[in-house]
Specification:
The structure is a homodimer.
Chain A: H1 3-11, H2 18-29, H3 35-48, H4 52-64, E1 79-83, H5 91-101, E2 106-110, H6 120-125, H7 136-146, E3 148-152, H8 159-170, H9 177-190, E4 195-202, H10 211-227, E5 231-238, E6 246-247, H11 249-260, H12 266-282, H13 292-301, H14 304-315, E7 334-339, E8 344-349, H15 351-359, E9 377-380, E10 387-388, E11 393-399, H16 404-413, E12 415-418, E13 428-431
Parallel strand pairs in A: 1-4, 2-3, 4-5
Antiparallel strand pairs in A: 5-13, 6-9, 7-11, 8-10, 8-12, 9-11
Helix pairs in contact in A: 1-3, 2-4, 4-9, 4-10, 5-11, 5-12, 5-14, 9-10, 15-16
């Protein structure tokens, strides 16, 4: 087979064969197909699409490029959650210990911050000592012992995706439904799950901008999951404004601990509980969704979800003392209030703008080699729908470098304040 | 500016700015934009197109990446011919000495064989001693002295195209109208011409498969030429079957010498004379196209075009004795006749098939580093429209390696012989 001929085939909108996809993927991994040929192919796939068969074959190639974890006798209780990425999205960190406490097993392989969005691994690494690079064998032990563990993508799991994802990130080929499907599903299937609940973020602050695209992606994810014998449930959630009250790594860890102590922002609770309800139903922990809230509440009220979280931190070499002493996480040198310039109702908080702005105080990366400032971030005191008076505090920026004022100004501009009152909308836009 | 953002812009079908195209091209040339980003951009351009402005800006960037030859006081007589490439296409080698003898100056920068098509440089290099790698200063002198010279693309002329073309060849991004336009026009404009006649090959054996695409490409080439103050005339010529009677490097040189001696295949004469007529009209050598044939004929009958060809060979260090002694070109060890299996009329000779088949006996390259066997090739004794009897000779294959019989078989299969008679059609399909 000839790589150029295969690129031309896809460029001309034709269907690739199973053998063609196998050839292109495997030859790329051994270096016989160059990165520039792969990126031309990826662009052709993005613009010309792939049908169900092609997406399935690509997912298969991704999976068979690495190891597949096997848990024995799972009884359908190995359920994971995946998020397509947002601003202030700390759902995994509160959801996993609750799900585990309810009796599910959650083998979670997470990612780092991408573009303007944060990453679960970066948030967890803000805990002193916490390790995310753990061998698969130890990961399996941790999941069986504490019912959940969260680690970074290993070299052993789906190396094809690891290499192709890095290329997609810099060649404008991220937003492709078949490529996103193969990337997400291959990693999840390789981590040994029975079922998967996906938080598909929609809106300006997300990679998927509209509900139409979200539905197409959901259909693709669900069908590919079914083909591999995995149950997949997808929630569409709004990502126009940041989720919860904190954005920034150690600030979000504190928000998570507070959540597990019963103190939560309504929107973060709404999304977390809805995802948990689907997981509990899927894992047969509850028989109906309306039983889920009580089950979840119990794990919080009893303090057991928090205990399980502390155990998780300890098992991955972090300092579990953080659940009672936030000073262990360190603190930024400066705090700058964001002051409202006029009174009115908060109509909109542009999460994409805030995500990009916070990168300038080190809360995220510009390039993969950048070091994150874990203590930098933003605490919102006003959310969409809230009324603010002139000169009232909208939020507080925490930082250590010299860029605080400029960043605070950009954050202020990302607030849209209007005269007429705003109805607070729920985050859940739909379910697939 | 961010390369990924620019790729996304084009991917989403938006117009690139002059600054964006400048940034992408110049940063690629200095190595700040990687080949995989360039290839993703090229695929996005191929699939989403470029408007006139973008094509113009790209052509400008190509030109300013290198040197531009300037001939002083040209009086509009520096006219070149370009062909988009075909099988048996030796037009340049007979056309240039005739045009020069008529009084035009032809500064020709040619290419090598590409895929199944032959290249003027390879054909000329089959002449012992002949040099095609000549510094621009010497090239200018040769053009002024003998009215024409043919050299290979130099590193000084349009380095942007040289690098991007190599990438397009292996990433399925050749057949793009804006990319073809920028590539062709930048090289020709940089070679110091006043006007250009283009032989746009159409059909299965060409890179442009249909007349619709040919017309779009012609419009683009013509408009970009006009924007740079250059007259451009385009002939659409049929490339379904090979041009002339020989395919293969030294065989084609012999056919060219015979042509200049007045012995020619009708189709090669038709195309060559039509292109020459446009050139002579453009360079004001003749006042009307119908005067051209007489002027051309005179240069052949007088033997002066042949003399000028011999002088050209001598000036570029080749052995001019070839015009009287073909044995100087060497000869293949084996000759194998291609025998007709049935009687009838030749309806079709698939030039693409023949081009690919002849690569197996070394007449062309599979990869850029392959060495060409100059003596290998095919001499056709039957052309489209001819009547053949069973067991009559269709052509003769010349070769040195062990693949002769297999190649001869493939060539035989590229002939389509039918019972009902065929009207011989002209090669000229249209003019733009």
């Amino acid at each position: 087979m000839n790589p150029t001929e295969l690129i031309i085939k896809k460029r001309d909108g034709k269907k690739l064969s199973k053998e063609g996809i196998h050839f292109f993927t495997t030859e790329y991994l051994v270096g016989n197909i160059s990165e520039y040929q792969m990126s031309a192919m990826l662009m052709a796939i993005l613009l010309k699409g792939m049908d169900f068969d092609e997406t399935y074959w690509l997912t298969q190639e991704y999976i068979s490029s690495g190891e597949v974890i096997k848990f024995e006798n799972t009884n359908g209780r190995f359920i994971d959650k995946h998020s397509t990425g947002g601003v202030g999205d700390k759902v995994s960190i509160v959801l996993a210990p609750i799900a585990a406490e309810c009796g599910l097993f959650v083998p979670m392989i997470s990612g780092r911050g991408l573009e303007h969005t944060g990453g679960t691994l970066d948030k967890l690494e803000s805990i002193p000592g916490f390790q995310t690079q753990i061998p698969l064998k130890r990961f399996k032990e941790l999941v069986l012992q504490n019912h959940f563990a969260i680690i970074g993508q290993s070299k052993e799991i789906v190396p094809a995706d690891r290499r192709i994802y890095a290329l997609r990130d810099v060649t404008g080929t991220v937003e492709s439904i078949p490529l996103m499907t193969a990337s997400i599903m291959s990693k999840k299937i390789s981590s040994g799950i029975d079922g998967l609940v996906i938080d598909l973020k929609v809106g300006e602050g997300a990679f998927v901008k509209d509900l139409d695209t979200a539905k197409k992606l959901a259909e693709s994810l669900s069908k590919i999951g079914a083909k591999f014998g995995k149950t997949v449930k997808i929630l569409f959630t709004n990502m126009d404004s940041p989720l919860g009250s904190c954005i920034g790594n150690s600030l979000e860890i504190i928000e998570c601990i507070e959540f597990l102590k019963g103190n939560y922002q309504e929107d973060l609770k709404e999304v977390t509980f809805a995802l948990l309800a689907e997981m509990l139903l899927m894992g047969k922990i509850v028989k109906a969704k309306n039983q889920a809230e009580e089950t979840i509440m119990q794990t919080i009220k009893s303090g057991k979800a928090l205990q399980r979280f502390a155990k998780f931190v300890e098992l991955q070499d972090g300092n579990p003392g953080i659940v009672n002493d936030y000073s262990i996480l360190g603190k930024a040198k400066y705090a700058l209030p964001i002051i409202a310039e006029k009174e009115g109702y908060v109509k909109d908080i542009n999460s994409k703008e805030i995500g990009w702005a916070l990168i300038d105080v080190g809360a995220g990366r510009r390039k993969i080699s950048d070091k994150i400032d874990y203590t930098a971030g933003l605490k919102l005191s006003k959310k969409v729908g809230d009324y603010v008076q002139k000169n009232e505090v909208l939020g507080e920026l925490f930082y250590n470098n010299g860029k605080g004022e400029r960043v605070a100004d950009r954050i202020k501009k990302s607030y849209c304040i209007v005269k007429s009152s705003i109805i607070k909308k729920g985050r859940i836009l739909g379910i697939y």
